Structure formats: structure tokens, C-alpha cells
Amino acid sequence: MNMPDHNWRTGNLDALCRALLSLETVDEMALFLRDLCTRTEIEGLSSRWEVATMLESGLPYRQVSEQTGASITTVGRVNEWRRFGTGGYRIALGRLDTPGHDAR
User: Fold this and answer.
1) In angstroms, rounded to a whole number, what is the distance separating the alpha carbons of residues 80 and 11?
2) What is the DSSP letter of 25?
């Protein structure tokens, strides 16, 4: 999926990324996300991440949908970005599978 750029990479996004990278623990990140996002936004992000990890483990769409409550459409979209997006899912999934990775 080669998506057009549409100027998604802005100075504000880079500033947010720097703020996220400044956090040192899972607890710090959770607190920051809770201040930054609504509960619904956090649930949506968490759900898409769960879908991505389940797809990465080889589970079929229907099973992922049933276990997460995500629609088949959402599962399909996550899978498209996981496979053909900008590589962000691939980076994170690969690093979390790396032995000795410090999730703090």
C-alpha cells in the first residue's frame, strides 16, 4: 500500500515524537498517553496494537476479530498497514520480539 505523503510529517508530529521518546518507562508512557488522549483514543490505539500483534503471530482475521472485538474491516486495515505501510508496525514488532529488548 503505497500511500501518498499528504504532508503527514509535521513539526508538531516531530515534537510529539520527541516527547514520547523522552519517556523512560511503561508507567511514564501510560501516564503521558492518559493525559494526551481520551480513554476512547487509548482504547482504539491499544486495540489496533493488539490486532497487529495477533496478526503477526499468524492468527486469521476472523479469530483476531472475535478475540479483540475489532471489526473485520479494522483487522484488514491494520493488516494492510502492517504489511505495506511506512514500516512503523514492522519496526516495533521486530524490536519487541528481540531477545533482551528492554520494555522497561
Assistant:
1) 27
2) S
Q: What is the largest CA-CA distance in the chain?
A: 39
pTM for the whole thing? 0.83
20 near 32, Cβ under 8 Å?
yes
Residue 77: how many other CB atoms lie within 10 Å: 16
Residue burial 30-49, b: 16+ Cβ < 10 Å; e: rest: eeeeeeeeeeeeeeeeeebe
How many CB atoms within 10 Å of residue 99?
4
Q: Give the type of residue at 7.
A: N
pLDDT beneath 50, residues of the chain: 1, 101
DSSP letters for 67-100: HH---HHHHHHHHHHHHHSSSHHHHHHHHHTSTT
Question: How far apart are alpha carbons 102 and 104 in whole angstroms?
Answer: 5
